[in-house]
Write a structure and sequence with these properties.
Length: about 200
């Protein structure tokens, strides 16, 4: 079932259900990006904030668990299984680029995200978990880069990147050959630096 349809360009809206469950990790990137941009909602002056009834799990002192976790799956095997040769080569290039930017080895997060490093987040609601500092996932329509942006001047820099589309907390690139490699490297380096400054270990 689809919560929202994939648009004409094939972009994932993060609310698309894959095999009956939200694609691991994508929703968390969106929630983090949205929360950072908008901040916590505040009630209007003189009006009390309406509290939602606590669920059974919340009453028991537990929150929904983040399904996106590092696995023992082989990154090399995952990339080698990609049927599209261009996406295979692009994935190998992104591994080198992101590993150099983070000084971290690549790991599979969930079934299809290749992530580097990690940071711990916590929502105002109390939900918390761990996510890669930066990562990517080769999709059929485009390769999705997660955690790129979130620093001053990122939009101006992204304007120089080349052919791509952007979502909340991510970039969609069909082919690396269609973007400026130096600009992409700078975006990744600055994004990693900003994320580590925001979530110091």
């Amino acid at each position: 079932m689809l919560d929202r349809a994939v648009d004409a360009e094939g972009k994932h809206d993060f609310s698309v259900l894959h095999g009956g469950s939200l694609e691991a990790g994508e929703g968390d990137y969106v929630r983090l990006a949205t929360q950072k941009k908008n901040g916590s909602p505040r009630p209007e002056p003189g009006r009390k904030k309406r509290e939602r009834p606590a669920t059974t799990k919340q009453k028991a002192g537990t929150m929904a668990e983040n399904k996106t976790k590092p696995t023992k799956l082989s990154v090399a095997t995952f990339i080698g299984a990609l049927t599209d040769q261009t996406k295979r080569e692009d994935a190998k290039a992104l591994v080198k680029l992101m590993q150099s930017a983070t000084a971290e080895k690549p790991k599979m997060w969930g079934p299809s995200i290749i992530g580097f490093g990690s940071y711990h987040y916590k929502y105002d609601s109390g939900r918390e978990g761990d996510m890669p500092i930066i990562g990517f996932s080769p999709r059929k329509a485009a390769t999705v880069l997660y955690g790129v942006g979130g620093f001053g001047g990122s939009e101006a820099l992204r304007a120089k990147l080349g052919k791509h589309t952007a979502g909340k907390g991510c970039l969609y690139i069909k082919k690396l050959a269609e973007v400026d490699q130096q600009v992409l490297e700078t975006l990744i380096l600055k994004s990693v630096g900003a994320k580590r400054a925001q979530y110091p270990s």
